[in-house]
């Protein structure tokens, strides 16, 4: 989707390779170019194991590229983090109550305990879990735990929110609820979102741009702007068919499937 918003992430010629025991290398990503503009909602789809999560780890500064450049124009702000990553599993600390789990992400930001608590409570309210702040992780459902993971990420007030198949392990009803929750938060906050998903229907419903990652090594093989106005209907047949057709042609060339 064409946008006047400035780019905040520019990836050029990205390569990521892992060393092998025999001295060789396994190249996961190669010749990957991608630009994210402020306020974008972009979805990445692709076959399992193609390297979608690896790309998010590079952007979260958890993995270093072997070649190419990742230019970030995220401007550090006091008491916040430039980006935050939400995993498929909530990865909560079982020895901390829910409020403490959300406050964990705020440690090291120079906030007082009172300020950490205030920010954590506001984030829990944003995801609809204010009344659960004294509970332990084991007392929550899978969907509720995933909301806590989202609250922990939102509490650090990131400019870039990275979502690694955050709804993949949830039932259909909870999945739909959290999709709408993420859309509401995105609209309210203006945060840029890059989400990995294997579900084309989900990508079309949520994102403004759907990117296919394919090939070995992986690179961007197709990109499709979703021009349907918001709010969108779930399962919008025409938009989904357009994306499936475009991505299907790219996948047939690459010999891959989702």
TrEMBL record:
Q: Keyword annotations for this protein?
A: ATP-binding, Nucleotide-binding, Transport
Q: Where is the ABC transporter domain?
A: 9-240
- What would be one Pfam family of this protein? ABC_tran
InterPro entries found in the cross-reference section: AAA+_ATPase, ABC_transporter-like_ATP-bd, ABC_transporter-like_CS, ABC_transporter_ATP-bind, P-loop_NTPase
Provide the GO MF annotations for this entry.
ATP binding; ATP hydrolysis activity
- ATP-binding as a keyword? yes
| Residues of the signal peptide | none
The domain of life is Bacteria
PROSITE patterns membership: ABC_TRANSPORTER_1, ABC_TRANSPORTER_2
Note the PANTHER family from the entry.
ALIPHATIC SULFONATES IMPORT ATP-BINDING PROTEIN SSUB, TAURINE IMPORT ATP-BINDING PROTEIN-RELATED
What family does the Swiss-Prot or TrEMBL record give for this protein?
Answer: Belongs to the ABC transporter superfamily.
Q: What is this protein called?
A: ABC transporter
Q: What is the lineage of its organism?
A: Bacteria, Pseudomonadati, Pseudomonadota, Alphaproteobacteria, Rhodospirillales
């Amino acid at each position: 989707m064409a946008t006047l918003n400035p780019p905040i992430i520019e990836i050029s010629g990205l390569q990521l390779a892992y060393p092998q025991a025999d001295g060789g290398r396994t190249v996961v990503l190669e010749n990957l170019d991608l630009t994210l503009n402020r306020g974008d909602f972009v979805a990445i789809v692709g076959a399992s194991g193609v390297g979608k999560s690896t790309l998010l780890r590079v952007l979260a500064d958890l993995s270093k590229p072997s070649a190419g450049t990742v230019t970030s124009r995220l401007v550090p702000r006091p008491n916040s983090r430039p980006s935050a990553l939400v995993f498929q599993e909530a990865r909560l600390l079982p020895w901390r109550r829910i409020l403490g789990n959300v406050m964990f992400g705020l440690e090291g930001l120079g906030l007082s305990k009172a300020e950490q608590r205030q920010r954590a409570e506001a984030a829990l309210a944003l995801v609809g879990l204010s009344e659960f702040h004294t509970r332990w992780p084991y007392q929550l459902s899978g969907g509720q735990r995933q909301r806590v993971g989202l609250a922990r990420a939102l509490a650090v007030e990131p400019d870039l929110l990275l979502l690694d198949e955050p709804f993949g392990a949830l039932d259909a009803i909870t999945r739909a609820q959290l999709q709408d929750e993420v859309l509401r938060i995105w609209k309210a906050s203006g945060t840029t979102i890059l989400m990995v998903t294997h579900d084309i229907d989900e990508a079309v419903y949520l994102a403004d741009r759907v990117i296919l990652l394919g090939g070995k090594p992986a690179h961007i093989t197709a990109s499709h702007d979703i021009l349907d106005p918001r709010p969108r209907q779930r399962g919008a047949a025409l938009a989904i068919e357009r994306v499936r057709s475009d991505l299907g042609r790219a996948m047939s060339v690459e010999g891959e499937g989702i």
